[in-house]
Amino acid sequence: MSVHGMTRRTAERRKVTGFTFLRTAVIALLVIGITGSNVAAVNIGAAHYPTDIEDCWAEEAIVSLIGEGIITGYPDGTFKPEDPVTRAEFSKMVAKAFAVRAAGEPTFSDIQDNWAKAYIAALTEAGIVSGFPDGTFRPSKDISRAEMTQILIRAIDLGDKMDGLTQPESSFIDVTPDYWAFRSIEIANTLGVIPVHFGVVFEPELPATRAETAYMIKSLIDLRIYEGKLANVDNRQGSVTITTPGGIEQEITVGLDTAIYRNNVEADLDRLLRGDEVYVVSDVFGEPKFIKARGLVTKDDVTTKISILSKGTLEPEDVEALARSDWNAVREGLEPKLVGNLVERGLTEEEAATLLNQNWTELGELAKKRVAGALSDELGVSQDLVIALLDANWEQAKVYGQIEVAQYVLMQLLNL
User: Fold this and answer.
1) DSSP-derived secondary structure letter, 132
2) Least CB-packed of 69, 264, 393, 396 within 10 Å?
3) What is the spatial distance between Cα 16 and Cα 7, in angstroms, rounded to a whole number?
4) What integer is the mean pLDDT of 275-296?
5) 372 vs 388: CA distance, rounded Å
6) Strand ranges inside 7-88, DSSP E
7) What does the alpha-carbon distance between residue 304 and residue 320 come to, in Å, rounded to a whole number?
């Protein structure tokens, strides 16, 4: 065989060998790529299912929120469901869960270099979170159950809508009506988002755990919330029809336990008016629990609000009668209550009765001063103005009124 022949065969063999090598390399790369993808998939799957949440009571909520990128586990593959949650961690969870984004800079003195400052700023701008009187946010502080609940209720836009919420008795033995987060806790309980294992003890100051936080966030995300304009009210069927911003009509059947508010005043279904802006929140079972409507202020709104401010002394119909100057229509039922209220403020029964009977002139000068003092304390105005008004001395009352208005404005300007 010639050298040329050997060279050609050698070259061909090398060519074949080269193709074989190339093919092998490609196959190897594909195998590595597929294997790598599988490994990545396994790792992603592992991220969805932390190693320490199996049989955890909040496992479903935890897995769901991890899958949505709202919460995360730890690098070691755990979730630590019973660990507490800091205010910074919770701010991130809430901001991501409810898509709250910031447009400005954070204002708290202790979060400028904090990893969660953008989330904290977003929730602050939205009025969902607040700091402490000293201007700090304390991002590393554990968040309490009460704080968590208050923030979550604000996040679904119910916190500032429940001014008229009435609750006959506390749902939890350790959360009384005078507790600062009472209303939010009651709303959350009504909506069914508080873990059932809390029972009748809420322990509001206890640090919220990662499992509790995940469960409540997931429960609130799953609530059905409708917002739009009221298109129709069917009092016979007990339903309302809402037109959403997208133009879709949604009919909602109102339950017997549905709390209805119009212009922040408790109302019946027939008080709702077409064209009202409506916000409906249903519980985890789809039953409407709160209907908030806002629209043209009516006489009913005003009389009911005044009735509420009187703390039960005046019923709405009493307010209407007084607005008509029909004192006799309410005297019989109202006078004993008013006399009692005035006596509590330091008047004698005779003085109170004289005042209610509008026999101001029959009071002696000393009694006038005592009555004026009591009314002054209650109304927050000077005794001189009260006396002038009761004497029907309108010119003098006008002078005193102008002075008090001027003083008030001055105090506001000087921040006194």
Assistant:
1) -
2) 69
3) 14
4) 88
5) 10
6) none
7) 9
* Residue with token string 């809508």: 161
Is-contact 284 230, C-beta < 8 A?
no
Which tokens sit at 2?
């010639």
Which tens digits make up the pLDDT trace of 113-128? 899 999 999 999 988 9
The length of the chain, given as a count of residues: 416
Structure-token match 């403020």, residue found: 345
pLDDT, one tens digit per residue, over 58-79 is 999 999 999 999 999 999 999 9
Tokens of 210: 């990662």
Helix H or strand E encompassing 219: helix 210-221
From CA 221, how far away is CA 53, in angstroms rounded? Answer: 21
Q: Are 83 and 53 in contact (CB under 8 A)?
A: no
Locate 56 and state its tokens.
């955890």
CB 131 within 8 A of CB 97: no
Element (H, E) at 188: helix 182-190
Tell me the residue type at 69. Answer: G
Residue 24 amino acid letter: T
- Residue found by looking up tokens 């029964």 in the block: 349
- Which amino acid is it at 336? P
